[in-house]
Amino acid sequence: MFKKVIIVLVLISMQSTLIMAQNPTLETIFARKSVRSYTDQPVAHEDLVLLVKAGMAAPTGMNRQPWEFLIVTDKDIMADLSVKLPYARMMKEAQAAIVVCGNPETSVYWFLDCSAAAQNILLAAESIGLGAVWTAGYPYEERMDLIASAFGVPKPYRPLCVIPIGYPKGEQNPKDKWKEEKVHINKW
Ligand SMILES: Cc1cc2nc3c(=O)[nH]c(=O)nc-3n(C[C@H](O)[C@H](O)[C@H](O)COP(=O)(O)O)c2cc1C
User: Fold this and answer.
1) CA dist 75 to 17, 81, 100, 134, 166, Å?
2) What average pLDDT does the chain have?
3) 139/163 Cα distance (integer angstroms)
4) Does the 33-166 domain belong in CATH 3.90.470.10?
5) Residue nearest (by alpha carbon) to ligand 1 atom 6
6) For residue 81, how many other CB atoms are within 10 A of its CB?
7) How confident is the model at residue 18 (pLDDT cuts 50, 70, 90)?
8) Which residues line ligand 1 (CB under 6 A)?
9) In the predicted model, what is the mean pLDDT of residues 36-61?
10) Which of 31, 46, 146, 177 is the most buried (most CB within 10 A)?
11) Helix, coil or strand: residue 96
């Protein structure tokens, strides 16, 4: 009986590995991780534009698309922000960053829409071999003001997050967050 259970578990795990290997989207989703250390290799402008395109492909409430994206390659601004912004030290090492901004006057969903865009950017970065991490602006007024003033983001736009980007330095592994006990079927 015990042997049978083990065999079934091994087969299930082999099956999901096979599905992942055959599905590049799932492979990217499961491989994504926050990368906070980068090499000196520059990131091509076209790749940064590609990441923003992936951001703009995200869904938005009522299709309002209440966003603007800022591509940053100015190392001085990034270094300055890396000391001013809490939990964003890695920005000093990054080759570039994308600031995802939203307009609260265009949509009440702005921070949700911009979050979907930010996640698309993180996944697109992973899929082309880049490393990236979400650093928070929203919901902290002080952090959003700091980011807005560093990059000249006009009112009423609010910077949801800054995503530092570069080629990963060292090996970083995705965390396994799967917890079956967090899944409820039909009724909690
Ligand atoms: C809303 C949000 C805010 C975050 N803010 C920061 C941040 O300010 N600095 C940072 O280093 N990481 C930040 N992260 C990244 C998380 O720390 C990271 O996603 C989490 O530890 C899980 O690790 P993983 O991304 O490798 O799966 C943020 C992530 C989210 C979704």
Assistant:
1) 40, 10, 18, 18, 12
2) 93
3) 16
4) no
5) 135
6) 24
7) low
8) 33-34, 36, 87-88, 133-136, 175
9) 98
10) 146
11) strand
